[in-house]
Design a protein that fits this description.
By secondary structure, the chain is an alpha/beta fold. The protein has a single domain, classed as Metal-dependent hydrolases (TIM Barrel), CATH 3.20.20. Helix content is about 45%, strand content about 20%. The protein has helices at about 20-30, 40-45, 50-60, 80-90, 115-120, 130-140, 160-170, 190-195, 210-220, 225-240; strands at about 5-10, 15-20, 35-40, 65-70, 95-100, 125-130, 145-150, 175-180, 200. It has a 9-stranded mixed sheet with strand order 2-1-3-4-5-6-7-8-9. The longest helix has 16 residues, at about 225-240. The N and C termini lie close together (about 10 Å). The mean pLDDT is about 95.
Length: about 250
């Protein structure tokens, strides 16, 4: 089973995307993904509850293909964010949390701790748009949290430093690396597997922002064994959310 753990749904002028559930499932069918883990861009950039409710409606119709992230646009929402996580898990069966950090409101502020603890308490993985340095801080504060470092640290204000992402992940057993990156350096997947093991690398594509075919080829063409590829392409995220797969 291939599970894409990093997909966006909805309409955003900022991101220049417009994708509904039917479109995303059609893309998944074409590329060969059984399940896709989605974030609603309305919750991410415009209105948290409205976006999460919109995703909840999609999950009711496409629950055999979509898995939902409760999206938290800013940790500064505090208790409201914690309540939203519990609401979406109870009402819609969402299986993870998506959070962003921004230079002007970094995730390392103390108000983020309760949100991470809530996710950890509910055993929800957190797809975090965080830098490696931020992840290092967060994992020391809440070591039981299961964080997926979005883009393997390869985002603009992290300076694309996936080497540092791997280095930080070596120090924290609950820190995982998401493979959805616009940069595709030779040896990056092989290096990560050698340093932290295949069981802490999670496949993502950032569809529809990035090309899912390219992201899939990056894993399938890596010089790692087939069992490692199966773990990365679906086994690891399935384990984190409690799904059964044939990955070993």
């Amino acid at each position: 089973m291939i599970i894409d753990a990093h997909v966006h749904i909805g309409t955003s002028q900022f991101l220049q995307i417009d994708a509904d559930a039917a479109q995303l499932v059609a893309i998944a069918d074409e590329v060969g993904f059984e399940r896709i883990f989605v974030t609603h861009v309305t919750a991410l950039y415009y209105a948290m509850r409205e976006g999460n409710d919109a995703l909840g409606a999609d999950l009711a119709r496409w629950g055999d293909r979509l898995i939902g992230y409760v999206t938290i646009p800013t940790h500064r929402l505090g208790q409201d964010a914690c309540d939203e996580i519990r609401r979406c898990v109870e009402r819609y069966g969402m299986r993870g949390v998506k959070m962003y950090s921004h230079p002007e409101s970094p995730i390392t502020e103390a108000s983020a701790t309760a949100i991470l603890e809530t996710a950890a308490d509910l055993k929800l993985p957190i797809l975090g748009h965080f830098t490696p340095t931020e992840c290092d801080v967060l994992m020391q504060r809440v070591p039981e949290a299961r964080i997926l470092m979005a883009h393997m640290g390869g985002q603009p204000y992290a300076l694309g430093n996936w080497h540092l992402a791997v280095e930080v992940a070596e120090r924290h057993p609950n820190l995982h690396l998401d493979t959805a990156t616009s940069q595709i350096d030779n040896g990056m997947i092989e290096h990560a597997v050698a340093r932290i093991g295949a069981d802490r690398i999670v496949f993502g594509t950032d569809t529809p922002l990035l090309d899912p075919w390219v992201q899939k080829a990056k894993i399938e063409g890596a010089a790692i064994d087939e069992s490692a590829k199966r773990l990365i392409l679906g086994g690891n995220i399935a384990r984190l959310v409690g799904f059964k797969t044939d990955a070993v």
